Amino acid sequence: MAVDRLSLEIPDRSITVLVGPSGCGKTTTLRMINRMIEPSEGTILLDGVDIQKQPVNTLRRSMGYVIQNAGLFQHRSIVDNIATVPRLLGWSKQRARERAAELMERVGLDSSLAKRYPYQLSGGQQQRVGVARALAADPPVLLMDEPFSAVDPVVRKGLQDELLRIQSELGKTIVFVTHDIDEAIKLGTMVAVMRTGGRLAQYAPPAELLTAPADAFVEDFLGADRGIRRLSFFPSGALELQTAPVVAQDADAAKIAARGSADVPYLLVTDLDGKPLGWGEPKDLKAGEITPERLLPYGRPFVHGSDSLRAALDGAVLSPTGWAVGVDDTGRVVGVVSQQTIGEAIRNAHAQGSGDDVRAAG
Amino acid sequence: MSGYFDIPSDLQHSYLGLIGLHLREALIPVLAGLLLSLPVAQLCVRFRWLYPPVLGVTTVLYAIPSLAFFVVLIDYTGQSETTVMIPLAVYSLVVLVPAIVDGVRSVPQETLDAATAMGFGPVRRYLQVQLPIAVPAIIAGLRVATVSSISLVSVGMLIGNQGALGNLLNDANIYHRPELAVTSVVTTAALAILADAALALVRVVLTPWMPRKGATR
Ligand SMILES: Nc1ncnc2c1ncn2[C@@H]1O[C@H](COP(=O)(O)OP(=O)(O)OP(=O)(O)O)[C@@H](O)[C@H]1O
Ligand SMILES: [Mg+2]
């Protein structure tokens, strides 16, 4: 038995992730939803109606299915691959192709690829075609089986961000299978952790999963650094940034002297546009002679407000001065913050338990 | 002294006429073999247990000498082209059935899953996904079957000059004109090479989706 008495309520218009070790029955569960595998007992209801009640191919055409390694039709051009389900539904060739072109744009594929064949595309591009093909007939439900597992981490992150964007625009009901817990936590509104034999170990929003794993199996599956990962759910907006240690490249000697203090061992130098250049000790900064090459690196800045405490802490840890640089959407410095301050913010956030109901901030 | 391409009158054909006849006697059996192989191969794909016995039968049929076929068939179809073409069609099965079965089986499982998941019924899936993807394998089989059929037509000379270009071999003997034998052999070989090249071209035209040799991804 691959899946045993699994009971899940999948919310509309959100991403539900099935995650678990290899062979635990994730694919089997997904295939039962579009009846590629029939359950030996039990029922699956879609909007309250048993899925057995409609013709199987009608059901399948109303659900987009994205398969591992994309599963594209190698003998059809990209545009014809995407137009597959609309054509099955009887759309004219013209209309199906227009729809395909529209979707290529939506998933970030250049229109010059339309007439190419799958073998001429990179793995990441093929995955995008797979997603576009599943979306083509505008199905309310999207089933995705490890769609991003065959691409490198950078491309995968791009595809994940793209999926979240598409989801926020289209509001599909997505069931997403992965064995990567990080992917589950990033994408899921709800995450179902499954154990071997297709039994449910825990079904919870990702923040709750990280805060309160149901048992040792889930805890083990979440991995070692779930404390750090949980910080992804605390926004950085509540951090109080300091602006005193920030000086522009053309600051005069008096200003540099005035800004340095016992609390502020380093000053962050910005260019005239407000973008960070690097850190320097006040005594080393000579007015008018500040050169970016001589400054200490500023690590990776976080976007104040939209990035999470995890990004802020990461920035502080990466910076040799122990201070993180907060920037706005355009990359201009809005202030700096020390590891101590971030540590206090983390303690406060935990005390309030606010992480449980805050969505991922990135 | 007759010209090089003057064909003895007993054959009732010009040189070009013989070529046309030869192609017809060679290609119609391959076509018939293909039409027969497609459903047989599909059955073999659908019911796996059927494939080994089917392969066994086609191999045994292939091992029967054409002369034996002629002896049996001549009672029914006489000294006609049909009598030549039936064994050729049967012989082509030994190449075509496995070619189609292997081609259809080579379609990746995830491609089939994708088709099913998108709501293809079995017939549509066969016609629109499996068969097109099997085209390279099928044409590879057709090339072998065609070349061998072209060379085998010649034995038709044994049943009253039904061997097209092959009849020239007989006449070379009767009329002591060895150049007729040379013409027969060279022309048959040329036809085989040209037919093979034509099929290779058809393959390229039908499968723009295949990676070109030497092209980079
Ligand atoms: N067609 C099948 N017939 C019978 N058993 C199967 C079939 N497909 C899979 N199984 C079994 O069912 C179990 C669950 O398989 P499933 O493919 O759902 O796992 P999964 O969670 O998707 O794993 P993975 O992460 O490796 O893809 C496995 O033990 C597998 O051996
Ligand atoms: Mg799977």
Detail the topology: elements first, then pairings:
The complex is a heterodimer of chains A (362) and B (217).
Chain A: E1 15-19, H1 26-33, E2 45-46, E3 49-50, H2 56-61, E4 63-66, H3 78-82, H4 84-88, H5 93-106, H6 123-135, E5 141-145, H7 153-170, E6 173-178, H8 181-187, E7 190-195, E8 199-204, H9 206-211, H10 216-222, H11 226-230, E9 246-248, H12 253-259, E10 267-270, E11 276-280, E12 302-303, H13 309-318, E13 323-327, E14 333-338, H14 339-352
Helix pairs in contact in A: 5-6, 13-14
Chain B: H1 15-46, H2 51-63, H3 66-77, H4 81-105, H5 109-117, H6 122-152, H7 167-174, H8 178-206
Helix pairs in contact in B: 1-4, 1-6, 2-4, 3-4, 4-6, 5-6, 6-8, 7-8
The complex binds adenosine-5'-triphosphate (ATP) and magnesium ion.
The site of adenosine-5'-triphosphate has 10 residues of chain A, from helix 1.
Key structural traits:
heterodimer, A: 362 residues, alpha/beta, Rossmann fold, CBS-domain, 2 domains, six-stranded mixed β-sheet, three-stranded mixed β-sheet, 14 helices, 17% strand, globular, disordered C terminus, B: 217 residues, mainly alpha, MetI-like fold, 73% helix, binds adenosine-5'-triphosphate, binds magnesium ion
